[in-house]
Amino acid sequence: METYFLPTHEYIKVDGNEGFIGISEYAAAQLGVVTYVDMPEDGDEFEAGEEFGAIESRKAASDLFAPVGCEVLEINERLVDNPRLINENPMEEWIIKVRITDPTELENLLTPEAYAEHCANEKH
After folding, report:
1. Could you read off the pLDDT of 3-44 as tens digits, one per residue?
2. How far is Cα 1 from Cα 121, in angstroms, rounded to an integer?
3. pTM of the prediction?
4. CA-to-CA distance for 123 and 75, rounded, in angstroms?
5. Are strands 70-75 and 96-100 parallel, antiparallel or unpaired?
6. CA-CA distance, 59 to 19, in Å (whole number)?
7. 3 state SS for the chain
8. Are 3 and 11 in contact (CB under 8 A)?
9. Residue-level pLDDT at 124
10. How many beta carbons lie within 10 A of that of residue 51, not counting itself?
């Protein structure tokens, strides 16, 4: 699976025409203990860059943005009762599983290397 990132710290792990969207390890570390994840409904559709939900921690609340145009296939039900799972393994505890409606939009996202550089620059 290939992984791409938004500068706002969402990732999408791509598997064919499907993807798993969540937040990066950097974002999870910045947020601290996650207390709530607001997720969309199955079947909801989003444009690239559109807000699809929110994540809250003891420190802050952040909107979540769709990396590409997509349709929600599934939400991660485990996060409803235990949002802290994101802190334990953010790159595996995805928030939504989606069908990618325009795969060419993946070209606009950051590679893991470019994202690492973005995070390093953000710290200064």
Report:
1. 999 999 999 999 999 999 999 999 999 999 999 999 999 999
2. 26
3. 0.96
4. 31
5. antiparallel
6. 29
7. CEEEECCCCEEEEEECCEEEEEECHHHHHHHCCEEEEECCCCCCEECCCCEEEEEEECCCEEEEECCCCEEEEEECCHHHHCCCHHHHCCCCCCCEEEEECCHHHHHHCECHHHHHHHHHHHCC
8. yes
9. 58
10. 12
Sheet of 51-57: strands edge to edge? Answer: 34-38, 51-57, 61-65
7: phi then psi, degrees, rounded to nearest 5 = -60, -20
pLDDT for 34-88, tens place per residue?
999 999 999 999 999 999 999 999 989 999 999 999 999 999 999 999 999 999 9
For tokens 């606009």, the residue is 108
Token pair 């609340």 is found at: 61
Residue 123 has pLDDT above 90, yes or no: no
Amino acid (one-letter) located at 43: G
Separation CA 103–CA 68 (nearest Å): 8
